[in-house]
């Protein structure tokens, strides 16, 4: 028998340390001191893919899993698993502390791999792809079962179970929806929310809830849900219990910062609502029944509420246009203004004059 040259493969910039043929395709793989692995077609000797990732010379290559994957080992002590079709590195293992001089796959399709290094160690590896896929499928099945159980619990108004499952599955959107339903149910919802906070199974669950509260509290759309949940937690859980949650100081600091912002915003909204209420009353838009209720109610002028009748007279509170004057002084001032007003000169609303043309 004799051998004749079929072609020369050119492309590596340093010495070639290892060559391996694919068991299924007319493809050959080469490992070089230029830190690359190259794939070549046997028919025309063309490089079809260059695999880069090793930090030093690549010393050994071997095909695995029916030629669909490629293993490489280098002087950096790393073993890499490559996808032949895409050229992507699927796995990197720190196989040895010294140069990996040897690499071999078993006859069982590459389920077992052995590597040897310059420090005299031999490592045996087992392909756990199928086991990992089976474990992932099992987790997915368990998650689907838990999702259905959570939906059933929510439908049956078993909020304790539904909230616990939402925390376990890390479903912040669903948890926010459940807590929003409780907030909308008033006192009954608050009672259920307190019971849910009391029966949280572990500090891990409590920590997850506090993280979600912190995130919701940064959004004005969901801050009322966050505040209701936080109120339930601090009312039924002991402070030392809350502080044992990992990262509790940072979580509470983040919640407090945005809570102060919401407090200032709500105070401003309340002030603006008084202005609208005052304007409506000055324009005579208030209902007579409301005026009667105000007149028959508590005579507390320090609550910041001012009530006018449809003639502009103060029946409750302190006139904001009269400064610190009493109600009686405000009435006298308004009587003097009426005497000075001439027909056709204008119509007065509070402190603003609209002059007729």
TrEMBL record:
Residues 147-282 form the U3 small nucleolar RNA-associated protein 13 C-terminal domain. The keyword Transferase does not apply. WD repeats lie at residues 9-50, 51-92, 93-126. Gene3D superfamilies: YVTN repeat-like/Quinoprotein amine dehydrogenase. Residues 330-343 have a biased composition (Basic residues). InterPro entries: Utp13_C (IPR013934), WD40/YVTN_repeat-like_dom_sf (IPR015943), WD40_PAC1 (IPR020472), WD40_repeat_CS (IPR019775), WD40_repeat_dom_sf (IPR036322), WD40_rpt (IPR001680). GO terms for cellular component: 90S preribosome; small-subunit processome. It is found in: Nucleus, Nucleolus. One of its GO terms (molecular function) is U3 snoRNA binding. Keywords: Nucleus, Repeat, WD repeat. Coiled coil: none annotated. GO terms for biological process: endonucleolytic cleavage in 5'-ETS of tricistronic rRNA transcript (SSU-rRNA, 5.8S rRNA, LSU-rRNA); endonucleolytic cleavage to generate mature 5'-end of SSU-rRNA from (SSU-rRNA, 5.8S rRNA, LSU-rRNA). Residues 325-357 are annotated as: Disordered. SMART domains: WD40 (SM00320). PANTHER family: TRANSDUCIN BETA-LIKE 3, TRANSDUCIN BETA-LIKE PROTEIN 3. This is U3 small nucleolar RNA-associated protein 13 C-terminal domain-containing protein. It comes from Prasinoderma singulare.
